[in-house]
Amino acid sequence: MKVTRQNLIDICDQFLTGQIDKIFIQNFAWNAICDDNFTWDEDEIISDTLFEWDNEDINYEINKANIQLWRKKLISEVDDLPIYNNWNSHISKQKEICGKYGSQWKPINKKLKIGISESLDDQPIHGLRHPKENGTTGWFIWSGDFIERDDFFKPICAEHLLQKRPEIIKYLGLDVGYRFLIDDNGYEDIWFDDKLKEK
User: Fold this and answer.
1) Do 190 and 103 fall into the same domain?
2) What average pLDDT score do residues 76-81 get?
């Protein structure tokens, strides 16, 4: 069998519609790599995709978010997988943002909690950083209008933002007391609010 990009795109589509599971994808990749009956042109994107699918322990997890990104890469050659999976790929942008707005770079532990609103789909997106306490980063992030409610913020590990809204990660190196306001049209406002430093 000659493996083409279209074959791999079809596999992505079948996974996204629930026709196949990740075991099928892993088995397909393993067979394509190991079985002499499988061939493909010298296409680095096909090779990379197959080797990434073959071992998610050392590559990216096979899930809907990542399969959509592999599909995009196969079609457009744009590789957004590191942005949605690799926290360290955002470090240089964090430092750049801090330098631009006069903040010390104060990175957070990605395993600690942030508070986010139930949805981050509305506009604009707000973020503010209090002092950290009890295993939290001090960051609270929400979209749309703030509602004064005890359960407005849900705790999640900071690294889970990678697959929800990776464009937010570059702001999470800002020091305690900073706020940001962004939207999907490129608007960005960052300022210091001294009241946030009070516990």
Assistant:
1) yes
2) 96
